[in-house]
Write a structure and sequence with these properties.
This protein is of the alpha/beta class. The protein is built from 10 helices and 15 strands. The strands form 2 sheets. An 8-stranded parallel barrel has the order 8-9-10-11-12-13-14-15.
Length: 445
């Protein structure tokens, strides 16, 4: 039996309330009995209802491709176990029901490059006349979306009361992400895999990996092994773990954007105090931009290690909730953040920072991306001529939801301006916990 229903449950737990209302154009249909169980809702659906010639998937459904692709071949193997097969005898279909025997995947582009401009556009055509299903995909990753839609169409249903189905879909936003905070509570690698599966089923394409915070630096470092010296195996991610996670995500069309929180939220770097780093005070919450450049040099080494592990174009440098005192002035904080951003750019990457770096410390580095989350919106960032990711905590933070008034709905992002949207998964109140429970939910309070 397929494990996909469990993964769908995981997806519901993670994304409860994350509702995207999309206007769906449905032709030749009549109300609910003809609506298709597809989520997120496709941009366009055409249906031809038919009581005489409903359709069902063959138990021996044959997948064919026009171009060889490792991404597509891997996806076919996964979806062969997910799709609910039936036959006319076991189904509720009438004897004239048409068996869909073949699924042809037509790739318009065989590039397996995964970046912000990757196409996820696809069309799905299922016809009782031909007895075939055809997926026309703009990329191998778009083909995965087509297969996901096909699996949803026949999920738990033995037959579909239509003789023709045409679906055309493409994402509204290029960045559709979820942030997992493992700087406060670790998520075992197998749980990360489950979350990536859930994102794939929901057609989301970015996994924002928040690797450090007050509780730990969760990434093994070759240059600074003391960062994880006090942790047991499974309480941090090795280089091999990261390689596995990045590849697991890639095979599902998901980019992994890493984040190391700098210069604030830095207590996870406390073990570097003295020889390698200086902090603003004895709380170890924020790194001091010392005149000798010791802190900056250490941070550059950590970022260089990060870049070697994560192939994505974007590197998140944190920079939220910084503070000032007599030692750490606003100018020294800004200079440190700007130096880090310029170093990331020198490595051929694009830095991302939280909104405070732009509006509070006042850093100005052309080409950066800023992420709105608390006091500002993406429109405010765009007005400053920067690209932006929208993740307003009032609408997207999982730990905020239980404390909000029930009358406040989740944000309907469909009619928003052309901005990127990210759903954040942050547990800001959880205490540090280095004991791993493979059954635990990393977002549970």
């Amino acid at each position: 039996m397929s494990n996909k229903p469990l993964y769908r449950l995981v997806a519901c737990v993670i994304l409860t309330g994350f509702t995207i209302y999309v206007v769906t154009k449905i032709l030749f249909t009549s109300f609910n009995q003809n609506l298709l169980p597809i989520w997120p809702a496709p941009k366009h659906i055409t249906l031809v209802p038919s009581k005489d010639k409903p359709m069902f998937l063959s138990r021996s459904l044959d997948f064919k491709t026009t171009i060889s692709s490792n991404i597509v071949n891997n996806a076919i193997k996964r979806y062969e176990t997910f799709i609910t097969y039936s036959n006319a005898i076991e189904s509720d279909c009438n004897p004239q029901a048409v068996e869909i025997k073949t699924c042809l995947i037509v790739l318009l582009n065989d590039s397996e490059v995964l970046d912000l401009d990757t196409s996820y556009d696809y069309e799905l055509i299922i016809s009782s006349e031909s007895g075939d299903a055809t997926i026309v995909a703009g990329s191998p990753y778009a083909a995965i979306y087509g297969l996901e839609t096909l699996s949803q169409l026949f999920f738990n249903d033995t037959c579909i009361p239509h003789s023709y189905i045409y679906i055309k879909d493409q994402p509204t936003y290029r960045h559709r992400g979820l942030l997992l905070d493992v700087g406060r509570r670790i998520a075992p690698k197998l749980l990360v895999f489950d979350i990536l599966d859930s994102l794939s089923y929901l057609k989301m394409n970015v996994f924002h990996f928040h690797l450090s915070d007050y509780c730990r630096f969760s990434l093994q470092s070759e240059q600074f092994p003391q960062l994880t010296a006090g942790l047991e195996r499974g309480q941090f991610y090795s280089k091999e773990d990261i390689t596995d996670i990045v590849e697991y995500a890639r095979l599902r069309g998901i980019r992994v954007i890493p984040e190391i929180e700098l210069p604030g939220h830095a207590k996870g770097l406390q073990s570097l105090d003295g020889e390698d780093l200086e902090f603003c005070d004895n709380t170890y919450r924020q790194i001091y931009n010392d005149p000798e450049g010791k802190s900056l040099n250490t941070l550059k080494k950590l970022i260089a290690e990060l870049v070697n592990l994560f192939p994505d174009q974007y590197i998140h440098m944190g920079s939220d909730e910084t503070s000032t005192n007599e030692k750490c002035t606003i100018e020294s904080v800004r200079l440190l953040e700007e130096e880090i951003a310029h170093f990331i750019i020198s490595l051929g990457k694009t830095p991302i920072a939280w909104e405070e770096a732009l509006f509070y410390t006042g850093m100005e580095v052309p080409g950066m991306v800023f992420q709105a989350w608390k006091s500002f919106s993406s429109s405010s960032i765009i007005e400053r001529n920067y690209d932006s990711i929208e993740s307003q905590h009032r609408y997207f933070y999982m730990d905020i939801i239980p404390h909000r008034e029930s009358s406040v709905p989740w944000l309907d992002i469909a009619p928003a301006n052309k901005i990127n949207v990210e759903l954040l998964f942050l547990d800001r109140n959880v205490k540090c916990n280095i004991n791993v429970d493979v059954h635990s939910d990393p977002g549970a309070h």
